[in-house]
Amino acid sequence: MNSKVNGATPVLRVENLSHSFGEGQARVEALRGVSFEARAGEVTAIVGPSGCGKSTMLYLLGLLDQPDSGEIYLRGKPMTQADDSTRTALRNKSIGFVFQFHFLIKEFTARENVAMPLRKAGVLSDEALFQAEKFLKQLGLSDKAKRFANKLSGGEQQRVAIARALVNSPDLILADEPTGNLDAANSDRVFDVLLKFARDNGPAVILVTHNPELAKRCDRRLPMLDGKFVEE
After folding, report:
1. 227 domain-assigned
2. Cβ neighbours around 213 below 10 Å, total
3. How many domains does one find in the chain?
4. Is 74 within a domain?
5. 97 forms bridges with which residues in the sheet?
6. DSSP letter string over 2-34?
């Protein structure tokens, strides 16, 4: 296992996180005092019915919004009161996102899509493309590196999206229904990639899924209902 892996210290710690939408009678409590930890090299599944708060949780963990109350610690540093520039820099450097819809730029090749986070971080084009090709090779896509995104199959596009999320070697990977549009074989392959990367490189992976079989394969399974974690 890579020296980056350190199971003794949580990559992410969430304390009493609450968040709501709307005002007055229209106010909806999306999260109600949620607390948990995510450790290096582990995959945590958050499961529950639609509307229970899973996606809101990922949105806050990704530093895309600030909670009403509570705290998010990334590598021990509090995040909720950080200014916008700090949060943006941390998103680019320390957090990788994988979504159900891959959001690739169809006019770019696979390797150009994967290289984007590196280019945003200031890496020169040739080096960024070289690193992108290395990650695509790990995902079995060497022969598709120069193919335009809209010429790839759904499973290939999702693997490209995963390579894009991993290329910066983030501390935290947030995956929101990453296999929702894939068949069983591609779902397994996508999950295997995330699991192997967690084991080999040490990020914490938090996976929101409706797929019970994938959830069973995770290191931890956290059921959510009505904005909080519940016992199974």
Report:
1. no
2. 11
3. 1
4. no
5. 174
6. -TT--TTSEEEEEEEEEEEESSGGG-EEEEEEE
- Are 64 and 56 in contact by the 8 Å Cβ rule? The answer is no
Question: In 28-81, which residue ranges form alpha helices assigned H by DSSP?
Answer: 54-61
CATH number of residue 174's parent domain: 3.40.50.300
Locate 150 and state its tokens: 């809209």
Given a contact cutoff of 8 angstroms between Cβ atoms, the answer to whether 122 and 168 are in contact is: no
Give the pTM.
Answer: 0.85
Rounded-to-integer distance, Cα 79 and Cα 63, Å: 8
The whole domain housing 87 covers 39-66+83-222
Q: What is the pLDDT of residues 102-156, one digit of tens each?
A: 788 989 999 999 999 888 888 899 999 999 998 898 888 899 999 999 899 888 8
pLDDT in tens, 1-32: 343 444 456 899 999 999 988 777 778 888 99
Cα dihedral across residues 62, 65, 67, 70: positive or negative = positive
Give SS3 for 76. Answer: coil
Residues 6+ apart with CB under 8 A from 176: 54, 55, 58, 97, 98, 99, 100, 208
